[in-house]
Specification:
11 helices; 8-stranded parallel β-sheet; NAD(P)_OxRdtase_dom_sf; NADP_OxRdtase_dom; 312 residues; alpha/beta; two-stranded antiparallel ribbon; Aldo/keto reductase; TIM Barrel; AKR_Detox_Biosynth
Length: 312
């Protein structure tokens, strides 16, 4: 393992009352590009170096991601030390955020995960067809039943987040977390109104695609490096003058700190006042240390300025 020896760092997960390591392992690859055994290897390494926050969704690989995570927790007896985040709203059997769909989706997720509770339940995108108070009312019942401990929003607009806070002021459950696409290569959708609302509401922000589909890990520098699959196509769009400028800045700072480029890209996110834990995936166990190491990297102000400038 390269870089400094790491001591597990913990941060409050917003106002949920939970504290976790400030890096969430993304489970979107489980059951998609990673089979059961490969996913177990990644999860073993993640837990072994202090990771305890895992992000999945009922729609990832049509539920297989939750099944793999659940079987790993059961096999390794790790449920009580892990914090599990999942999302509902996009599974083909329970699309949208109608109360009946939320209820059924949560029960199905609990079964796949092999647990009696979901630590954080996200609404997986907005559902303009359903009044938000109806969706939150159903979650209120799930919280009362002990099936859900806290809730978050995935890719909600600033306007809907404000509406949700008004409803919370009237007694409905409050969004405590927000997950949204945000990284050095994709800044504009979050920076601005969404960031202002998140800050004003004290939302714990968990950026997904934190490494821009792996591009910020620095393994792809030329078109010839691009894999011919869906993930490779996403990475390829970042190749270009701006992408190379960002990688050059990340490389220089990573060398100065003795860590991998991925650690610097994640440390930049962790320096943002609203960000609590970036969400990043690993396809091999040996990639996990670079993710976890980000929490131990303190970027200097000049380095943050350089990264901001390179990615502008």
């Amino acid at each position: 393992m390269s870089g400094p020896i790491m001591v597990p760092v913990r941060r409050p997960l917003g106002d949920t009352g939970m504290a976790t390591h400030p890096l969430a392992l993304g489970g979107s690859t489980f059951g998609w590009t990673l089979g059961r055994n490969e996913a177990f290897d990644v999860l073993d390494r993640f837990a072994g170096v202090g990771g305890d926050l895992v992000d999945t969704a009922d729609s990832y690989a049509a539920g297989r991601s939750e099944c793999i995570l659940g079987s790993w927790m059961r096999d390794r007896n790790t449920r009580d030390r892990m914090r599990v985040m999942t999302k509902v709203g996009r599974h083909p059997d329970h699309r949208g955020l109608a109360p009946v769909d939320i209820r059924a989706a949560v029960d199905d997720s609990l079964q796949r995960l092999g647990t009696d509770r979901i630590d954080v339940l996200f609404f997986h995108g907005d559902d303009p067809e359903v009044p938000l108070e109806e969706s939150l009312g159903e979650v209120d019942a799930l919280i009362t039943a002990g099936k859900v401990l806290a809730i978050g929003a995935a890719d909600f607009s600033p306007e809907r987040l404000i509406e949700a806070r008004v409803l919370a002021a009237n007694g409905l459950p409050r969004f405590e977390l927000l997950t949204t696409r945000y990284n050095l290569m994709e800044r504009k959708p979050f920076e601005g109104a969404t960031e202002l609302v998140a800050h004003a509401q004290g939302l714990a922000v968990l950026p997904y695609f934190a490494l821009a589909n792996g591009f910020l890990g620095g393994q792809v520098r030329r078109r010839a490096d691009v894999r011919h699959d869906a993930r490779g196509h996403r990475v390829a769009k970042h190749l270009g003058r701006r992408g190379h400028r960002v990688l050059a800045a990340v490389d220089e700072i990573a060398f100065a700190h003795g860590v991998q480029p991925a650690s610097i890209a994640l440390a930049w996110l962790l320096a943002k006042p609203t960000v609590v834990a970036p969400v990043a995936s690993a396809t091999r166990p040996d990639q996990v240390e670079a993710l976890i190491a980000a929490a131990s990297v303190e970027l200097h102000r000049s380095e943050l300025v350089e990264l901001d400038r390179a990615s502008a």
